[in-house]
Amino acid sequence: MFNALVLNKDDDDKVTSSIKQLQESDLPEGDVTVDVSYSTLNYKDGLVVNGLGGLVRNYPHVPGIDFSGTVRESSHKDYKTGDKVILTGWRVGEVHWGGYSQRARVNGDWLVRLPDEINEKQAMAIGTAGFTAMLAIMAIQDQGILPDAGEVLVTGASGGVGSVACALLSNGGYQVTASSGRCGDEYLASLGVENCIPRDELTEWNGRPLNKERWAAVIDSVGGSTLSNVLSQLKYGGAAAAIGLAGGNKLDTTVIPFLLRGVKLLGIDSVMCPPGTRRTAWQRLCAELPKSQLDKMTTTVKLSEVASQGSEIIKGQVRGRMVVDVNG
């Protein structure tokens, strides 16, 4: 028997959660069974736990879009008992049962070996959010945007993706400006942020297709009117990496920035990202993200606290990275 956070939906479509004891026979099909050590709390997890967004179709359901742990049993050619592994994406925690459980069973093709440079808790301190931030940075660098290009804006900078993006960019020599509702907080400065602008400055778009050139690149986790604004403010040849929609999924813009300034809008998908790119991203995260900064942005909660914290994260009240100790 093992503990898991289980979601159920009643006849009125209300989703409730509770910690339940499950048996291994309850787990879904898969060729690798993992003793889970840690998971994390992401914005998407907050939606799932609160029954929002239509991400889960079948109940009962075990959420948690990522996890780290130790292989318990395996019939997969690449993994054996005792291997340390990470899982992010592949719609685990949405379509497939996820990491808010002391045990998980998944397709071994979805796993990545835990790098030697980090432990299981650090892997989830990085988690889906940090992995996504690295993909966004790789994407803007693929466009030739290097530190001497000018300021890079990170929206939603106090959140999980934003925090890791700020630390990675600053450590890589970029001049980082944050957009946040916590500009007076020393937390952002501790991640290497040089300037901060209140998020309200970017939430109202003036409708002009081009505004003053400000940013060499943008890593945007907000979407909506914020992304509309920053597209009009990108420098010639700049790029915006879009990784989230906390501020809405509607984009009100024109083709003018793309035609007259040659800017790029780069969509970042961490869910179905190919295995080779995944391995590269994790290698770079281990090499480029200072562990001291990772510690500053991380808090740890118990499995029993996920439901309450899930409500807070969708309100924008959770700062940095939140690791879930499923055995705590």
Question: How would you explain this protein's 3D organization?
Answer:
This protein has two domains: 2-114 and 297-325, Medium-chain alcohol dehydrogenases, catalytic domain (Quinone Oxidoreductase, Chain A, domain 1, Alpha-Beta Complex); 127-267, NAD(P)-binding Rossmann-like Domain (Rossmann fold, 3-Layer(aba) Sandwich), CATH 3.40.50.720. A hairpin with a 5-residue loop joins strand 1 (2-9) and strand 2. The protein starts with a strand and ends with a strand. The chain is globular and about 60 Å long. It has helices at 43-49, 120-142, 160-171, 186-190, 224-233, 256-260, 275-288, 291-296, 306-314; strands at 2-9, 15-22, 32-41, 66-74, 84-88, 103-106, 111-113, 152-155, 176-180, 195-198, 215-220, 234-242, 264-267, 298-302, 321-325. The chain has 328 residues and is α/β, with parallel strands linked by helices.
Give me some keywords for this one.
seven-stranded mixed β-sheet; alpha/beta; 328 residues; single chain; Rossmann fold; Quinone Oxidoreductase, Chain A, domain 1; 9 helices
Write the layout of secondary structure elements.
Layout: E1 2-9, E2 15-22, E3 32-41, H1 43-49, E4 66-74, E5 84-88, E6 103-106, E7 111-113, H2 120-142, E8 152-155, H3 160-171, E9 176-180, H4 186-190, E10 195-198, E11 215-220, H5 224-233, E12 234-242, H6 256-260, E13 264-267, H7 275-288, H8 291-296, E14 298-302, H9 306-314, E15 321-325
Parallel strand pairs: 8-9, 8-11, 9-10, 11-12, 12-13, 14-15
Antiparallel strand pairs: 1-2, 3-4, 3-6, 3-15, 4-5, 5-7
